Structures are given as structure tokens and as C-alpha cells.
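Input/output pair, single chain:
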Amino acid sequence: MKNVLKALLAYLILAGSTTAGFAPAHAATGYLIGQEIRAPYLYCIYRVGTQTKEVRMDAGRTCPKTYNF
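Output:
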């Protein structure tokens, strides 16, 4: 009986992980498209798929060409 329950649990976990509702979050890579200085920070602007995202950096830093979100 324990083996049947273990097999059922394993099946549900594997089946659930392949559907959109249970899919684990994956890191998305953003590509640098611009930068702005808004004192006292540097804002790096990245394109992630069809979205645009900003990352705030401290003064004196530079924007990396890619950024993992």
C-alpha cells in the first residue's frame, strides 16, 4: 500500500510540474537597452521578452550587458 501511495504522489508531482499552474519559476535574462542617471542612482533599463524592466544601481557602478531577473 505504501508503494502505491508513493507512486501516486510521484505521478502527481511529475504531472503537476509540467503544467503551467505548477511550473517552477525560471530566471529570465534581460538585455541592456538603455541607462538613466536619476541622482543619486543609475538606472539600467533591460528588455526581457516583450517587457521593459529597470534595475537601480548605486552611484559609481556600471550596467552589465545582461541581467538575470
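The first strand starts at residue 29 and ends at 38. Strands lie at 29-38, 41-48, 51-57, 66-68.
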